[in-house]
């Protein structure tokens, strides 16, 4: 969480990640899916979280409660509780969204080509509930050179304790 990378472009960057760089592969159903009806999702999530997770929305930059969070701990899917990111991989990208160099597990997320809004991006979803988390861009620090640009609304944070 203490690392600082070079200034990254914002989430709206039209950059197109090079998926092969990290050896990404099609995800087999490694994780049991959580499938709820739309009514169940609406009952479970706040309107803001529903909009981001289930409708692919994006919170405004610098408004998310986890953007500037520097506390050591772990980040979980706000839809289903799956562990997604660790504070060890969080860094200040300057983008206004919580940014990570990698998920805790390649199988925790699914990465999908997103050609919406006149640009090609790679959408990141929770592998268990298919909730929209954000996008991944090829301008991050670290060995993989990736920036996982996430929405605070998609994440729950729990401080690390007793470690
Ligand atoms: Fe999830």
Describe this structure in words.
The chain is mainly beta and about 160 residues long. It has two helices and nine strands, in the order ααβββββββββ. It has a six-stranded antiparallel beta sheet with strand order 3-4-8-7-6-5. Strands 2-1-9 form a three-stranded antiparallel beta sheet, with no helix packed on it.
Order of helices and strands: HHEEEEEEEEE
Q: Helical region count? A: 2
Radius of gyration: 15 Å
Molecular shape: globular
Q: How confident overall, as mean pLDDT?
A: 87
Top keywords for this entry?
mainly beta, 10% helix, disordered N terminus, binds fe (iii) ion, six-stranded antiparallel sheet, three-stranded antiparallel sheet, 163 residues, 25% strand
How would you summarize this macromolecular structure in one to three sentences?
This protein has 163 residues and is mostly beta strands. The protein contains two helices and nine strands, in the order ααβββββββββ.
How is the secondary structure organized here?
Layout: H1 38-44, H2 47-55, E1 73-77, E2 83-86, E3 90-91, E4 99-100, E5 109-114, E6 121-126, E7 132-137, E8 147-150, E9 155-159
Antiparallel strand pairs: 1-2, 1-9, 3-4, 4-8, 5-6, 6-7, 7-8
The structure holds fe (iii) ion.
Residues 77, 79-80, 82, 126, 128-129, 131 line the site of fe (iii) ion.
């Amino acid at each position: 969480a203490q690392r600082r990378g070079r200034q990254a472009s914002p989430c709206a960057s039209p950059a197109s990640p090079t998926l092969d760089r990290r050896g990404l592969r099609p995800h087999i159903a490694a994780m049991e899916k959580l499938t709820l009806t739309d009514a169940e999702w609406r009952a479970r999530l706040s309107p803001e979280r529903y909009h981001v997770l289930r409708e692919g929305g994006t919170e405004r930059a610098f408004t998310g409660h986890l953007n500037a969070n520097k506390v050591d701990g772990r980040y979980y899917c706000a839809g289903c509780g799956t562990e997604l990111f660790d504070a060890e991989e969080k860094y200040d990208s300057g983008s206004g969204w919580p940014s990570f160099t990698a998920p805790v597990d390649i199988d925790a997320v699914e990465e999908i080509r997103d050609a919406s809004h006149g640009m090609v991006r790679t959408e990141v979803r929770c592998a268990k509930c298919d909730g929209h988390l954000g996008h991944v861009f090829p301008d991050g620090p670290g060995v993989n050179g990736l920036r996982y640009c996430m929405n605070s609304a998609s994440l729950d944070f729990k401080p690390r304790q007793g470690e």
